[in-house]
Specification:
CATH architecture: 3-Layer(aba) Sandwich
Helix content: 40-55%
Largest sheet: 6 strands, mixed
Distance between the termini: 8 Å
Number of helices: 6
Strand content: 15-25%
Mean pLDDT: 96
Number of strands: 8
Length: 151
């Protein structure tokens, strides 16, 4: 399921982002640049992800990862972007850095696909071995290959 929605060009390794908003904005920009999200939907995506996050954090504090997500009426297919940073992308709560973020954006009607991608990413990220390998990845191609090995 992950291979259907993720490509190396939708992965950022060691981006300069230092807040949740920068991380979401950067991943949405990455999705637009990679052709996975129409540019006209970018502002709606930022708003929808922020609204969803305000309801309840999508951070998995125990594993220093997060899977923010939202559904958009303007999407035709699910979009998945990934950011990895050993120094952390943002702190979900003070002193708890989030090192890996998988952003999932799905069409409003794609319930099964949305939940399937969320479950797949959360399950993959539960692997300490995979997280360690992802944090050591030098580029998006390496990170993508690691995910494909385990998906």
């Amino acid at each position: 399921m992950i291979a259907t929605h993720l490509r190396p060009e939708l992965i950022r390794v060691a981006p300069p982002w230092t807040s949740f908003d920068e991380t979401v904005g950067g991943l949405i920009e990455t999705l637009v640049e990679g052709g996975a999200l129409p540019a006209a939907s970018a502002a709606d995506a930022v708003r929808a992800v922020s609204e969803r996050e305000a309801l309840a954090s999508t951070a998995l504090l125990d594993i220093h990862a997060a899977v923010p997500h939202a559904r958009l009426g303007t999407l035709k297919t699910t979009a998945l972007g990934l950011a990895i940073a050993g120094q952390g992308l943002y702190e979900a709560v003070p002193t708890v850095p989030i090192h890996i973020v998988a952003l999932v954006l799905s069409p409003a009607s794609a319930n099964a696909d949305h939940l399937g991608v969320l479950a797949s990413m959360a399950t993959l990220l539960r692997s300490a071995e995979l997280r360690t390998a992802l944090l050591a990845a030098r580029n998006p191609i390496e990170a993508f290959a690691l995910l494909l090995e385990r998906a």
